[in-house]
Amino acid sequence: MKTRVTIYNEGVHEQTKENVRAIYPNGIHGALKEALETDEVSVSCYTLDTVNEITDEVLDNTDVMLWWGHARHAMVPDEVAARVRDAVLKGMGIVFLHSGHHSKPFRLLMGTSCNLTWRENGDMERLWVVNPAHPITQGLGRYFELPHVETYGEPFGIPEPDEVLFIGWYSGGEVFRSGCTFHRGNGRIFYFQPGHETFPIFYDENVRLVIRNAVKWAKPIYRVPELLCPHVKKPGEEE
What is the strand order of the sheet 187-192 is part of? Predict the structure, then answer.
């Protein structure tokens, strides 16, 4: 059976900024779809214009979701964010990319501010692999570099991650936990920092490898159809 991936990309910058449209003529979601779609992976895409179409049925038929947002987090309806959170608790995997750290679903799942420091001046980032045995880091060397990124810096207001996979070091001197995993309910979560819209980061082969590995890792292992708090009988009692 194919792995079913659903991508949410805000899709605003590609419509409003010519420099972004030049890099991602088919949208960030188009570049991600190109990186992921194979005979073994099917991909569906949604943007802010179609975010209300992310229904319970869509999420029930999604193995792993990718979420990229930036300028319009507040315009994502609360009920959609709650649906995504609940889908993760049921067992759907999710990968949050770059500015997705401030998205409603990520904040719901983390329960914290998810704030950080940032600077947009095109620093180089060196991503150090600090957990080379993890499935998401397979196929990488000790580190890889991105020539131009938006700088993110600590402190990063997230709960203690289950695992830190990447430490990003920037030419301006900052460091950042650039790749972190979490478990919430039955679902697996990966946050990955690279992906600013004014740089062609989602065409980088190392970035694409990380995202492909993350999709494989985040696939559901155990999934429930509903979130229940049932009353049960003691073992051995008659039904």
Answer: 41-46, 3-9, 64-68, 93-97, 187-192, 175-184, 163-170, 117-129, 143-153
Residues 47 and 144: their CA atoms lie apart, in Å, by: 30
38 - beta bridge partners?
Answer: 41
Do 165 and 201 touch, CB atoms closer than 8 A?
no
Q: Is the pLDDT of residue 207 over 90?
A: yes
Q: What is the pLDDT of residue 236?
A: 87
pLDDT on residue 21: 96
The set of residues, in sequence order, having a beta carbon less than 8 Å from that of 34 and lying 6+ positions away, is 26
The H-assigned helical ranges of 91-204 are 104-110
CA separation for the pair 213, 211 (Å, rounded): 5
Average pLDDT over the chain, rounded to an integer: 97
| Nearest Cα to Cα of residue 182 among 72, 105, 77 | 105
Dist CA 56 CA 143 (whole Å):
39
pLDDT, tens digit, for every residue of 16-66?
999 999 999 999 999 999 999 999 999 999 999 999 999 999 999 999 999
The answer to whether the CB of 124 falls within 8 A of the CB of 149 is yes
Q: Are strands 41-46 and 64-68 parallel, antiparallel or unpaired?
A: unpaired
pLDDT tens digit string along 129-163? Answer: 999 999 999 999 999 999 999 999 999 999 999 99
